[in-house]
Structures are given as C-alpha cells and as structure tokens.
Amino acid sequence: xxxxxxxxxxxxxxFSVLGPLQAWYQETELHLGPPKQQSVLALxxxxxxxxxxxxxxxxxxxxxxxxxRAVNVVQRHMGSLRRLLEPGLLQRSEARxxxxxxxxxxxxxxxxxxxxxxxxxxxxxxQDAAENGRQEEAADLFIKALxxxxxxxxxxxxxxxxxxxxxxxxxxxxxxxARAAAxxxxxxxxxxxxxxxxxxxxxxxxxDEVLQACFIRVLAAEGxxxxxxxxxxxxRSQLATELGVAPGAELRAAQAAVLRRTAHHTEDTPAHAPxxxxxxxxxxxxxxxxxxxxxxHVFTGxxxxxxxxxxxxxxxxHTAVVISAIGGAPGVGxxxxxxxxxxxxxxxxxxxxxxxxxxxxxPAADPLTPSMAxxxxxxxxxxxxxxxxxxxxxxxALYRSLLAGRRCLILLDxxxxxxxxxxxxxxxxxxxxxxxxxxxMTGLAVSAGAHLLRIDVLTVAESxxxxxxxxxxxxxxxxxEAALAIVEHCGRLPLTLAIVCARAEIxxxxxxxxxxxxxxxxxxxxxxFTVDGENDPVTDTRSVFSWSYRALTGRAxxxxxxLWLSPARDVSLEAAASMTGLSMGATRQVMSELHRASLCxxxxxxxxxxxxxxxxxxxxxxxxxxxxxSLEGAxxxxxxxxxxxxxxxxxxxxxxxxxxxxxxxxxxxxxxxxTDTESAADWLHHxxxxxxxxxxxxxxxxxxxxxxxxxxxxxxxxxxxxxxxEQIEIQSAxxxxxxxxxxxSGQAHMHRSLGFALGRTGxxxxxxxxxxxxxxxxxxxxxxxxxALTRRYLAFLxxxxxxxxxxxxxxxxxxxxxxxxxxxxxxxxxxxxVGWTRILMGDFEGALRDCRHAVDVAQRAGNRNVxxxxxxxxxVAHHRLGRKGDALQALHRALTCYRELNDAYLIADTLxxxxxVHATESPGQAHAxxxxxxDILDSLGHxxxxxIRERLRNEPGIRQTADSG
Length: 965
Fold this sequence. Notes:
- The chain is α/β, with parallel strands linked by helices.
- It is built from 43 helices and 16 strands.
- α7 (165-188) packs antiparallel against α8 (191-204).
- The two termini are 26 Å apart.
C-alpha cells in the first residue's frame, strides 16, 4: 500500500544534492555507504516526493546489463538507507521518510530539508515575478536560487550514474535558471551580484550559445568590454572545433551589442515584429491558423502527463525549439491528451495553431509524405499552392522561414515514424511541437532533442471517474462493484471504456451488472468492444489494433501472434525466442520492433509485457493465420524453456537435492544455464508466477507428463518462500496429472512433495497418508534415494508432533538407504537432521556430535548447502549450552555459506538464530540482526516475517533499545 506522500516534518534530516551528495542527521554528517547506495539516494532526492519506479533505479545503476539479482540488491540498499535515515525504526510499514510507492520508492522530504526543492521554489517565484514585471524582485530571487549550487547535481557519483537523464534534467534546470537570471539582472541593473554566478554557469555549459550570449552581455554591462569580446572569440572557437558550426543569432547579437557598447539586453526590433524584407519594408502579416479539432467533452486523469507537458512551455521567445513526442499503445488516448492540452494552452501561441493527421496508422489511406504535410501547412500560412516549391528541401526552407520569429503550436498527430516528422519541425525558437505516435520516437529524441512522454492506461480511480462523467455519478455509485468489473474487463484502456460507455448510454435502464456480465462472457474476444450497429474503423477496437499489426514485418507479426501463449503478460527474451523458434539475435530485433510499435512494453531489460486486450487480439490473429501444429510446437518450446531453465536454476541452488531427469527439450527451445547461485535465484524469483501458472494449467494443453517434473523442481523454492497454499495447489494438480498418465514415478514424487507441504501447514494426518503412499511406491520401484527422502519427511512430521523417537527411527532407515545408494550428501543431511532432533529433545551434547559429523562429511563431499545447515545446527546447540562465543562462531560460518549460496530465506533464518544468541546480553545487536532478517523475509513475502515483527515489539530489552534509538 502506498504511504502518505506528505513531506516529512522531521527537521533533524537535511540533504544536499546540488553539488556533492551530502546528508546530515541532527547536524552530524552521515556516511552514505558505497557508491551504488549513494546513487540510489541521489535518484530519490532529485525526484523527492515522487514515486521512483524500481525499473528506473535498476536502469540507472546498471544500464542495459543489470545483474540477475539487481532487484534484491536495490532492496538491500533501501533497507540500509531506511535504517540510516530513520534509526530505531521497528518495521518498514512505519517508515515516513523512505517509503514504498507505486511500484518503487519515494523519499518524503520538505523544501527546508533539500536544497534542490528550495532552489525550485526560488526559481519559480523568480519566474512569476519576471512574468508580472517585477524585474528587481525576479533578479534577487534568481540570484538566491543560483547561489545554492555547488556543482553538477550529485557530483562525485560514478560517471555512468551521473549521465542518467534525471541528473541531466536537474543540471538543465540550473542552466535555464541561469539564462533567466541574466535576463532579469540586465533589466533590473543587478548585474554585479549576478556576474560571478553566471561565470560559474557559463563555465559548466560552454556550448550553450544562449547562456554564453547572456554571460557576454552581463560582462559588458559591468564594463568588462574586452573580456566580453574575448569570451565571444573563445566560444566561437570552441563551437567551430567541437561542433563544426558558426555562432548563432544570439551570440552574434551579443557581440554586436558589445561592439556598439550597448549592454542593454533588448534589441531595437521587438521580438515579435515582422522581419524586414530585402527592400527594407516589413513582411506582410501572415494568417493566424486555428486548426485544432474539437477535444472530447469528457476528459479524465492524466494530471502528471499534463504537468510534464506544461513544463515544456517556453518561458520566453528566445528559448530553444521544444518538441514533445507522446507515445503509447493503440487506444490509450494519445490524441485525446494532445488535443486537451493544446486547447488549454492555445492562448500562449498568438501566431496560430497548426494541426495535421499524418495518417501513420490509418485503415483507409497511406501515411502522408512530408512534402504533402508541408504543402498543407504552407497553404495554411498564406502561401498559394502555385507558389509552393516543388523540391522538399525548398519547401522545408520556406516553411521554417515563415515560422521564424513567430510563436506557433504545431500538433503532428498519428505519426508513423521520426523520418516523417523531422521535416515538419520548425527551425527557430518560439514554437512548440507536439507529436503523437504509436512508434517509439527515440530517433527524434536523439536527433532533435524531443522530450518523450509515454502514456499508459488509466488508473482504476481515473477509469471510475470517466464512467461517472459519461454515465452519471448516481448510476455508477449505485453499482460500484459492477463498475469496477467493467473497468477490469476494459483493461482501463480509454478506447474500450468509451465504447462500453456509448453502449451503456443508449441502454440507460440496463443495470451495469448486466453489462459487466456481457463483458465477462466475451472476455476472450474483442467483439464486446465494438459500437453496436456501426462499422467505424476509428472506434472498433479490433480495427484500431490491426493498424499497428498490419504495419509489422512478417517475423514481427508472427512473434506478436505468439504472445498470448505466454502464461503471463511478462515474457523474457529467451521465452519469446522459444515461442518463435528464432535465434536470440533475431528475436531481439522483432521484439524491439513490437516495442517501437507500442504493441508491447519493456519495463526491465530483456523482458516484455503486453496489455491484456492486445493479448486477446494476438490470440484472434493467431487462430486466423496459424495452424494448430505450429501453435502446439510454439507452446511446447515455451513450456520446455520454463521447465529446463527452472531445473537448471534449482540444480545450481540446491546441490544437496536430487532432481528428476527430464526428456530432451524440443528443437528451437532456448534453455538458460547458470554459473552462480545469485543469477539462478534471481531467475526463479522473477519467473515464479509464470512457472506456477504452467504447473497449475499446463494440463489444459495435454502436457500432463511435464507437470509433475515442474512441480518437483519448484518444491524447495516454494517451501523456502513460505508459499504453502500455492505449493499444495501445485503438487495436488501435478499428482492428478501423473495419475492421468499412470506415471508411477511421478505419482511417488508428488505424494512425497504434497505430504511435506501438508505437514508444513499442520495437516498431519493427510500428510502422513501421502508420505506412506510415496514410501510404498518408491520401495516397489527400488528407488533408494526417493525412499530415503520420504523417510526424512516422515521424520520431520514426527518431530512436529513431538514424537522424537519415531523421528530417529525414520532417520536410521534413511541413513541405511543412503549408505546402500552410496549417497554421501544424503548421509550428511541425515546426520545434521538427527542432530536437530536431539536439540528438540534437549540432548545438546549429542546434537554437537551428530552435527560435527555432518560438517565433516559435507566438507569432504564439497556440499556447501549441507555444511551451512550443519553449522547452523551447531550454533543453536552451543547457544542452548550457554556457549555464546562458540555459538556465534558456528552461526557466522553458516551465514557465510548461505551468503555465498544466495539463499535469502536461510540467511534470514541464521540471522534470527544470531539474534537469539545476542538477545540477553546485547539487545541492540539482537535488534539489528533481527531487523535485517525481517527486511529479507518481507522482501520474500514470507509469513515468518510477522513472527519476527512480533518479537521485535514484545521483547522488553529489544523494545527499549529500539525506543531509545
């Protein structure tokens, strides 16, 4: 749940990010940890008060090549920062400064605690003063704002972090403020105070011609004519050397002003006056087009997107050309947002508003060529068709000349790609261009500095607001649950919401529950999202989606038709390659094409997700164009990818356990191998929802023979994650599948796994029945290892019922079976578990003997899993005997092993045991390690986290220590 976003009023914390990153707690400077942890804090600070998505943090820290456990690393940094900024915090849910929010994290700080927020407050006040003619006040405010800067934002962080767009954006704010400060200082004659600050800014952006021109004028205003001319010559030389360009109009005008000994910042010719013609007259006044189509009468949400667009509005006619490219999936409301914003701001562009539908994705016509679009604009600007040049470059030159010196808003709707848009961009400051496209306009951002704004579906609240505005608050309020169901079925997509509302408006007495039921009946089809009785390709969802689909290359279209096969919206590159049967390189190309076309999104590197309704469209296209044989082959390769990769991951992590043998994967399947436990655990963590879906529903496609193997592979991962009920459901489904195919080996494995899972939840009678069934089947098959492991599970069940002697008998039988099978690791495991049983019986010396033996055998076998478990048991036995030093030594050896193995749950379990040792004599240390364990358990979503939370609340010594911190 998102926490309260109100900035914290805790004045004991202060931060500085305008220059080197620094933080203070109660006036003592804090040590902020390693560089990556500092980078995380800096990312949160420059976006203070706003949710910072987890994927953005991962991208900033590692770029396109994050490590497999990147998310876990970020979560650990967050835990460390939370403890640093709020010492004494008992649980994450009580945090006020660093909180979870909207798929990421948010830092709640007030403007008095962060120099960046104070800078923005002063800058905004300065802009307001300047716009209202209070130039002296504006100059003073801008000077105060610039005085807060000590260097580039978060200076000192690694270059690859500092180069991230969020830091570049903060630096850009500084340079814009410096330009505004120069203008205000020149007008108010406050240049003396501004000069050193502008010198610093000009040094930081030597190729910013507008800023350099401002600095030259301020130098001249203070009587430094020679230095001003020398600075012009230096800037001209640097532009030629580094960019190969001559000074622009701003720089030349500044030089001319100095040469005329005129330091005033305005020119004799007003900024908006028509430019003189060659004969000295004035160019005739051009028409003022007002071409914006009407916006929708109902508009909902998009507050953050509108703020982003508002921030791009030029504050003066000399700012650079501004371009915003709005992207997103078909039907997400790109044009609606663009038109709504354009109408709100049309008054800011007194020279007119140009609009054109470029037909990039049109059901009835080809995309407009740049020449056709410019010809239309030229006529709109008063050029008769017979005077329009025939060559495109001449058309562009004339178009840009007509826009020079004017303030126009240009809306380029439904663009196909950046190549179609580039010729339509104005060439001089003062204009603002908004582009909408399904295509990702990355090329436009690189070549023209466009600001990319990707919009997503509406939130649930925004969707309900839209329904209320269209259908009436009373109707929606009366049937709130039905309205929620409609929102869910529409996927919060504005197009489908509009279609359903249109149908509901012509049926005013029909209950919303009936409409929701109709959508439920057709949830696997797009037929529900058409306007009854109409064949309008603009409002038919299937048609709108098809415009993007038909524009794909053949291989990309085939890849799109496979997306619905994935059990979840998120699909990895390897899974996509398995579905398509293409190589990894070819798959990367086609998925990039789908991403550019907004038919899928990429929230993290190497993974793609698709809107639910696009998945329905994918399925429809697949059934129309693909054979059953090709689909079955794709599904088999996909499931083989998940099964074999999960097997590889579990084998690397759980070296102490045997895994079922697998049949060969189908040709064309991409199977990932792992060389370390960290990457293996990370893969399982990210893919577990897909794996669970396959394990539960794979039988729908006749793959019963694979289900039990996948369930067996997932057994330990689900157990360590505390997902007891999910584990029982999966093992039960797998047992049914094995029975359907009369696979006795599969039945034996699933009886054993299901029995263990039931025992974990206290359903002991059912557990014992399944385990005895497994024991009989393994014995009949002569499977010594399977029989031995089942004996160990029966021993665990006996210990849970305090029948410790029965447990020892089961362990004795298991040890005999392992010896017969020459299974050394199994022998070591039994010895450790016997030792743990003796701990439960109070025989701590006996436990030490058995666990030492387990350590010796495990070390000889080279098995770190069993060695770690045995060290942990030794530590607990020493603790029960009152040997604190020996206990801590053994437990820390266990902890070292588990950290090497990246077994998060057992790291937490061992930390809990270490806390137990410290609890009596060192409650502060106990609090620290239990808190660390709690962070890990919470990150896993493990139910045992609640037990530790309760312990932290109720232990008197621990509570007192936490309160005093």
